[in-house]
Design goal:
The complex is a heterodimer of chains A (244) and B (290). Chain A is built from 10 helices and 9 strands. By secondary structure, chain A is of the alpha/beta class. Helix content of chain B is 79%, strand content 3%. The mean pLDDT of chain B is 89. The chains are: A alpha/beta (244), B mainly alpha (290).
Chain lengths: 244, 290
């Protein structure tokens, strides 16, 4: 891979004294849709948080578009886990989406009508325009997740990281989100998604990164997402196809 | 202006300033940091007094800000050493406060500062310490000081409104957008310190906490818009100050105590009657199907 959009070399991360990730190396091709898959506690969220500078790394380096993070932040979008925020915060869906533009708006300035329009259009794209002025605690889990996706869309980034965007959402939301992800890829963007449902991996992602404290396997889904590799990632006691 | 009017005005300024600051404190789930800082600024004030040898507003503000920042920094540091957040707050603020108490009891001695005053304030004496300003003439020093601090608070909240909003709601997103989340946290804690120092002389450390936390907690129950929450919280602060004064006048008791009591009463009323979050609403309205 010569024209990789992400390059991670020798990344190691620890919480207190527990090593969460060690010797993580991989490269990601532009225009790929990668599922990050692994058991609970494998370090999936930690991996993207560390790559985005939200958690300190012990060692290693991460390059995006051939540059360190600080130079390319505006080209990267992040969708945190839905459960990581307090949905009782006193505001509406449109305001949450507008937050995606705060980086562009700059210090001391307020969002203009144009910014609000951009945010509204992103909500519309997620089929959420009727909920723009709804208090966010009144939205269902799936609707909240769509608001988060809309907030990422409005950033108009080239590279997206999403932490479990499909966890606990209804079927309609799952379809809507996957349609948007395919659209992003068709527009030439690159997306990495932390994903928990092994049954949908082959359908949803063209690349997969199997993670359990380090990269077990990484590559095209058709080649890498084999029963053997999955067993190696999850260990003996995994639940596989049809268990649910 | 009459003696009573000055006291009510001063207390209202405390209510308004604290009410405004309380909104982000509550939403950032840092109510207990307010408690901590309201105590540790005492240390800052005492040290400012020891260094400058006078009770000056600017020195006290600087001392208070430094003490507040030290508190926030130590709490963060303990947390990163895997000590629980609430335990960290408890350890830091009691220790710093204790140093303040020791210093007052030994070296500052019979000066303007004493522990009783620091905890409960002496709002009744406020009209006696006047300064002379152009145009306005003679006005109580604490009142002028609080007015300046209110302007500072409004200025900062207006300037950093969206930054504090996003770092409150979703600090991870804010960081990924390149915002200096930690800097904004310390800036906010400095502003809390400033508010506390200014309110200290008037109402003391304990009522500052009531004024910082309770009106905002009440306002949270009445609205689901951030801007409205600011207006309501500030109004509840002023209302508590005014009603508290008359309660104290009526039953002849502590003014600051009555004001703090009023913030609690307003919260109780809000908790019962709020149309969205109140107890009554929960019984009257059928459960929404999700």
């Amino acid at each position: 891979m010569t024209n990789s959009i992400i390059k991670v070399e020798g990344l190691a991360v620890a919480y207190q004294k527990n090593t969460v990730l060690s010797d993580v190396n991989f490269e990601v091709k532009p225009g790929s849709l990668t599922g990050i898959v692994g058991p609970n506690g494998a370090g999936k969220s930690t991996l993207i948080k560390t790559m985005l500078g939200l958690h300190p790394a012990l060692s290693g380096s991460v390059y995006f578009f051939g540059s360190p993070l600080s130079k390319v932040k505006s080209r990267i979008g992040y969708v945190p886990q839905r459960g990581s925020v307090d949905w009782d915060f006193p505001t509406d869906a449109l305001d949450i989406v507008t937050m995606g533009l705060y980086g562009q708006i700059g210090w001391l300035k307020r969002p203009t009508r144009l910014h609000k329009e951009q945010a509204f259009n992103a909500l519309k794209k997620m089929g959420m325009e009727d909920y723009a002025h709804k208090q966010i605690s009144q939205l269902s889990g799936g609707q909240q997740q769509r608001v988060f996706l809309a907030r990422a869309l409005v950033q108009d980034a080239d590279l997206y990281f999403m932490d479990e965007p499909l966890a606990g959402v209804d079927a309609a939301t799952e379809r809507a989100i996957m349609a948007i992800l395919k659209e992003l890829i068709a527009d030439g963007k690159t997306v990495m998604v932390v994903h928990h449902d092994l049954q949908t991996v082959a359908n949803y992602f063209d690349h997969v990164l199997l993670l359990n404290h380090t990269v077990i396997k990484h590559g095209e889904t058709s080649k890498v997402f084999t029963k053997e590799n999955i067993v190696q990632t999850y260990g003996g006691n995994m639940r596989w196809m049809g268990d649910e | 202006m009459t003696y009573s009017a000055w006291i009510i005005l001063t207390a209202s300024l405390v209510g308004l300033s604290c009410g405004i600051m309380g909104v982000f404190l509550i939403l950032r789930k840092q109510a207990m940091m307010a408690d901590a800082i309201s105590h540790t600024v005492l240390l800052g004030i005492v040290i400012a007094f020891l260094v400058t040898n006078q009770v000056s507003g600017v020195a006290m503000l600087i001392g208070g800000i430094l003490a507040g920042l030290l508190t926030a920094f130590l709490v963060q540091s303990l947390q990163s050493l895997n000590i629980q957040h609430d335990a960290g707050i408890g350890i830091v603020f009691t220790t710093l406060f204790a140093i303040g108490v020791i210093l007052i009891a030994t070296s500052v001695g019979n000066a303007h500062l004493d522990v009783q005053h620091a905890l409960m304030g002496e709002i009744t004496f406020i009209p006696f310490h006047v300064i002379t300003l152009p145009i306005l003439g003679e006005i109580p020093q604490a009142t002028a000081f609080l007015f300046v601090v209110l302007l500072i608070i409004v200025l900062f909240i207006t300037a950093f409104y969206k930054e504090w909003k996003i770092t409150t709601f979703d600090p991870a997103l804010a960081a990924s957008l390149g915002m200096p989340v930690l800097f904004l946290h310390y800036l906010f804690m400095s502003l809390v310190s400033v508010t506390t120092v200014a309110s200290f002389d008037a109402v003391g450390a304990i009522m500052v906490v009531a004024m910082l936390i309770t009106p905002a907690a009440s306002a949270y129950l009445w609205t689901d818009r951030l801007a409205k929450m600011f207006i309501l919280s500030g109004s509840f602060g002023v209302l508590s100050a005014v009603l508290g004064y008359y309660l104290a006048f009526w039953i002849d008791t502590s003014i600051s105590g009555s004001m703090a009591f009023m913030t609690g009463l307003i919260f109780l009323i809000s908790f019962i009657f709020s149309p969205t979050h109140g107890l009554m609403a929960k019984y009257i309205r059928p459960k929404q199907a999700m």
